[in-house]
TrEMBL record:
It comes from Mauremys mutica (yellowpond turtle). Monomer. It is found in: Cytoplasm. Substrate binds at K21. This is 14 kDa phosphohistidine phosphatase. The active site is at H49 (proton acceptor). It catalyses: N(pros)-phospho-L-histidyl-[protein] + H2O = L-histidyl-[protein] + phosphate; N(tele)-phospho-L-histidyl-[protein] + H2O = L-histidyl-[protein] + phosphate. The keyword Chloroplast does not apply. Gene3D superfamilies: Janus/Ocnus.
Amino acid sequence: MAAEQLGGIRSVDIDPDGVFKYVLIRVRPAGGPGPARDIVRGHAWAEYHADIYDKTAAEMEKQGYDCECLGGGRISHQSKEKKIHVYGYSVGFGRAKHSVSTKILKDEYPDYAVTWADEGY
């Protein structure tokens, strides 16, 4: 049942264009280890990576989930060119595993060129 509930959570919620901060978040049903799902959230409105995490965690907690931030970075999303590039790090949360974030983004945007690098901020 819990795994089915996790399937209802959107894997990706990012801005449609631009360069912005993002976080990789692990979500699981509240109150125990159980199954988990990693999600990507990224928005230009966020001054800090923690702004994105705090908003997402609050939304998930209302739905009965616990969250853990696995790190962050930046995303360059060019929708006209169908390109997404993941890079950089979060000062507060550390560098996310961009390879994991990239896989999640590729699943959501199968017709895009999705790349990553550890360089840059």
